[in-house]
Amino acid sequence: MLLVLCVDLDDDLGRKTGFSTPVIGRDPVEEAAVALATADPEDSDVNVIFQGLHIYDDLADRNESVEVAVVTGNDEGDVKANREVGDEVDTVLASVSTAEDVTALVVTDGAQDESVIPIIRSRVPIDGVRRVVVRQAQNLESMYYTIKQVLDDPETRGTVLIPLGILLLIYPLALIGSALDMPGFVLGTTSALLGLYLISRGLGLGERLDDTVERTRRLLYAGRTTLLAYVVAAALFVLGAVSGLDTFDGVQETTPGRVGAPVMLAAFVYGSIQWFAAAALTTSLGQITDEYIAGRFEWRYLNAPFYVISIAFVLHAVSAYFLDVVEMSYLAMALTAGTLLGIVSTLAFAVLESRFAESSDPEQDVEEGTRDFDGA
C-alpha cells in the first residue's frame, strides 16, 4: 500500500484551524484542507494537502491500494519539529491496518519541510518526494529558506557575509580615498584587512583569541597573582630588550672595525640579562604564590627563583668576559658560584621536602588510628 504523507513541518494546520493531527483518511484530510484554505488562503501548505488529495484520487481511480494522511511538527525549531513529525508518522503507520507492505510518497512545499525525509525514511520506505510550489513563485521558498539558513548560522555569517561586506565597501572607500587624495592607501588598507581576516579564519586565530580572553577573565575573577606577574614580566622583558639593544649600539660605536657575531650577542645579553632575570623571577614567584594558595605547594617549587639567579649570574659573567669587562678569574668564580647555588638549593629543598613529609606521617597515622578506634 502507498501512503501519501502531506508534511506540514511548522504545524500551520493545527495552529490556524485547531485540527488535531495527524489527520488520516481522504474525507478528514479534505476537511482539514478546506479549513486551512478558509483560515489562510495564502498558506502554501494548502497546496500540499490538496496535492496529496489529488494523488490519492488519481491512484484510487486506478484501483491501487492507497491512503492519505497529514502529519505536522511544531514551530519551536527544526529538531523538535522533526521529532514531532516522526511521532505522528508512527501513529499513522499504527492506524493503517493492512497485510501489504507500506511505502510512502512524501508531499512537501519546499526544502524546509524536506528536512524531515530522513526521519520518515527511518520508519517507512519512501517511493518518492513531490514538492508543490505555486507556479508564479517557482523556487522562491527554497531560495528564501537557503538565505534564512545562511543568516541564522553564526559560522556561515562569519565566513561569507563579512568578506562580502568588506568587498562591497571597497567602492565607497575608493571614492573617499579619491576625495582625500589617498586612493592607494585606502584600497591597500581594505585589502589588508580582508587578507588578515581570511588568514585568521583559516588558522583559527579567532577561536584561540576567544580562549585566551576567557582564560584571562577566569584568572581575574579567581584572584590569581600569575596574571599580574605575567603583565609585569612582559614590561620587564620589553625594557630588557631595549636595554640590550642600547648596549649593542654602544658596543658598535666604540668598537673599531666589524663586530663579530659572538660579541654582538654578548653585548645584547650583557645589557638585558638583569631585566630578563627580573621578569623570570616575577613569573616564578607568582606561580609559587598561586600554588601555595591553591594548596598544591611543594618545596621543590622554590628551586625556580634560585635557578633563575644562577643562570643570570653565569650569563652576565660570560657576556662580560666576551666584552672584556671582566677577567678570566671572575668568569671562573661566576661559573662556580652559579653551579653551587643551583646544587645547594636543590639539595636544601629536597631535604626540607623529605623532612616535611616525614613529620606529617605520624600525624596522619594518629588520625587513621583515631578513625579506626572510633569505628571499633
UniProtKB/TrEMBL annotation:
Pfam families: DUF373. The chain crosses the membrane at residues 158-176, 182-200, 221-243, 263-283, 304-323, 329-352. The keyword Membrane applies. InterPro entries: DUF373. Keywords: Membrane, Transmembrane, Transmembrane helix. This is Putative membrane protein. It comes from Natronorubrum sediminis.
